[in-house]
Amino acid sequence: MSAHRIHRRLVSILGALLACAVVSPVAAQTFPARPITFVVPAAPGGILDQSARLVAGELSKLVGQPVVVENKAGASQIIGAQAVARAEPDGYTLLMGSIGPNAAHYGVYAGKLPYTPADFTPVVHVISMPNVLLVNPAVPASTVPELVALAKAKPGALVLGSSGTATSGHLAAELLQARAGIQFTHVPYKGSTPALTDLIGGQVQVMVDNQVTALPQIKAGRVKALAVTSAQRTTEQPAVPTVAESGYPGFEVTVWVGFMAPSRTPAPVVDALHREISKVLAMPQVKQRIAEMGGYTMPLSPAQFGAFVRAEIDKWGTVVRQAGIKPE
User: Fold this and answer.
1) CA 43 → CA 73, 135, 190, 192, 310, distances in Å?
2) Taking burial as the number of CB atoms within 10 A of a residue's CB, which of 41, 95, 189, 265 is the most buried?
3) Which residues in 13-84 belong to E strands, given as ranges?
């Protein structure tokens, strides 16, 4: 390549960089100027979908632009995550990220995912929710130590149902097995409902499920709650101890959900999104709905949310390797 052409190439690149530097603040001042899309990488009706729609309705009124929720389910939520990773980094397409596709999957799929953590910019934490350790009423255990003793007496005899490989419930059960030195036989289902149905029917004996989903069955006596996986007891089940209280200090697993933008989204736009969505999360009606779901939100900056996600990636990467979790 001639010196003249090299000079022209450098001038072109420099011009593009300067244009980006100029456009970003301007874009932030007028953002949003058109509809925003929330991509939910799961089917309608679940926690991801409910959380996205809860925010979308109020955010639309706040910013004066439509906020559309688009469900892109499939491949353990990988399809939806990939779509956002490849979207234009302009702040108009956000992922409803979670513990599976944005933390545990990096260990489960070991470099085979069509995206990496560097493809996303964390924007705002939306909700964290506790799980609950459940057993079928016929299981002769009413506490975590009793369940551990039963599992140690007959390794592999107790069948663990989950809503899918590397979901929050599955990961919590794997962490318990590692900490307690026990072994369940894992059967992954395609969703929480069929797994919970088989737990009630006795086809599986153990399950870790989201509290909001399991609570009606607990109250009806169809399943027994042994412990919650959060750091503190929950207001919905104050008599149910935590796993940490039950002999495993530091044990904490929550379902977490938060918005993520494609990487290279201008920082002023990320800050604008964080600011407006945080306003939504502070609305009394939104806070009440989150509480009804048994959840809570954390006032994290984008940088703090990013640090939280990186810690989750490290934590679950270790659990996945130790447990030998592989894709379904």
Assistant:
1) 5, 27, 11, 12, 26
2) 95
3) 36-40, 67-71
What are the beta bridge partners of residue 258?
97, 125
Euclidean distance between CA atoms 94 and 83, whole angstroms: 10
Phi, psi of 2 (to 5 degrees): -75, 160
H or E segment at 201? helix 192-201
Let me know: does 98 contact 257? Beta carbons within 8 Å. yes
CB 209 within 8 A of CB 132: yes
Q: How far apart are CA 297 and CA 167, in angstroms?
A: 20
SS (H, E, C) 249-267: CCCCCEEEEEEEEECCCCH
| Closest listed residue to residue 99, CA positions, set 227, 260, 216, 249 | 260
User: Which one, of 227, 255, 40, lies nearest residue 135 by Cα?
Assistant: 227
For residue 281, the model assigns a pLDDT of: 98
* Residues written for the chain: 328
Beta strands 206-210; 159-162: pairing state: parallel
Average pLDDT over residues 61-81: 95
Nearest CA-CA partner of 32 in 280, 298, 227, 269: 269
pLDDT tens, residue by residue, 176-200? 999 999 999 999 998 888 999 999 9
191: left (phi over 0), alpha (psi -120 to 50) or beta: left
Distance CA 272, CA 281 (A): 14
CA distance 98 to 101: 6
Q: How many CB atoms lie within 10 A of CB 126?
A: 27
User: Which tokens hold the place of 174?
Assistant: 């794997």
Nearest alpha carbon to residue 248 among 278, 227, 275, 262? 227
Residue among 169, 127, 167 nearest 305 (CA): 127
* Domains parsed from the chain with CATH numbers: 33-128+256-323 (3.40.190.150), 130-228 (3.40.190.10)
Residue 14 has pLDDT above 80, yes or no: no
Plot region of 95 (φ>0 → left; ψ -120 to 50 → alpha; else → beta): beta
Kind plus residue range of the DSSP H or E element containing 188: strand 185-188
